[in-house]
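Onboarding guide, step 5: your first structure request.
Type a short instruction followed by the sequence, for example:

Predict the 3D structure of this protein.
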Amino acid sequence: MMKKRKLASKAEKPRREKVDWKTLEIVHPDAAGIDIGGREHWVAISPDRDEDPVRRFDCFTADLEQMAKWLVEKGVCSVAMQSTGVYWMPVYEVLEQSGLEVYLVNARHTKNLPGRKSDVQECQWLLKLHTFGLLNNSFQPTDEIRVARTMWRHRSSLVAQAGGAIQRMQKTLTEMNVQIHNVLSDLSGVSGMAILKAILKGERDPWQLAAFANPAVKASPADIAKSLHGNWREELLLVLRHEMELYQTYQDKIAECDHQLRKHLQSLASRVDLQAQPLGARPKGKKAPRGNTPKFDLRSELYRITGIDWSGERHRRPDRTDRDYRGRRRSKFLSQRTSLCQLAGLVSDERTKRRQDTESAHS
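The system replies with structure tokens like these:
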């Protein structure tokens, strides 16, 4: 009786279907792979689409347009390429304008397999991986966000170069034993710039130079005058003049960049009507913009575009009763951000919008 029951229970179990592990599901049948280079690009498509499935194209714009035209004619809909330096950017723009779906792939995800030494094998390997859906696409914001990001990064570079000019001016003053840094905390402030301009105009009397300092400076006029007594060497004064001119040039370029950035942000669509939902008062402890911050009201522009008061979010204190520890850490991290991360909110907002659009399309 026991043997019959065991046989019956074995017969009731469903049979497992055999799976062929040697085959992979094709996710992108109309795929292509591009090996990005500094002087040339290699493109591979399926051999059943063209007698010459692997072709080389130069990096000139006309060649990139010819590449996109060839891919469209051969029925390619999705292209995978590596994010190599900045060489991929023109290719990405031309292919995107041609209506192709471009997968920008991290090179770390494709370089681990040995044996691919040539550009031809590299583009063919990208084609295979992309055909079977084994590559992840990197997020790319819309063109509007890319414009704002490019201008903001350029502005950050200008600010860094202006800071370098200030450091070189400080070094030159120290070589002349003008110890102004001991009485002024910021050489690029109102008092520091006024004193530097007077020095370059030929003023050498310490008390006359000290008179240009703002009355709000904590150091006494005697200490300021004492720090401005130095060795005025002609070659160092020439260096000081050149660095001052460079600093003024950087400041002019920063102002021009702010003008273009404000103009671009004003062209973006609004999510909040500032008249119906006005922006509240500046958070407590948040000082007014100064130094190298944009001279226009960046806080209002970001609030109008994203619907979020980034200044308030940065200074929101986490609730001690909140159980979400990650949320508390995020609030602490936001409190340490600069204005650069405010523009990053545009990218994050666009990423959420694109993900929601993709989910609704699949549903």
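Each response can be followed by summary notes, for example: Confidence is low (pLDDT under 50) at residues 313-340.
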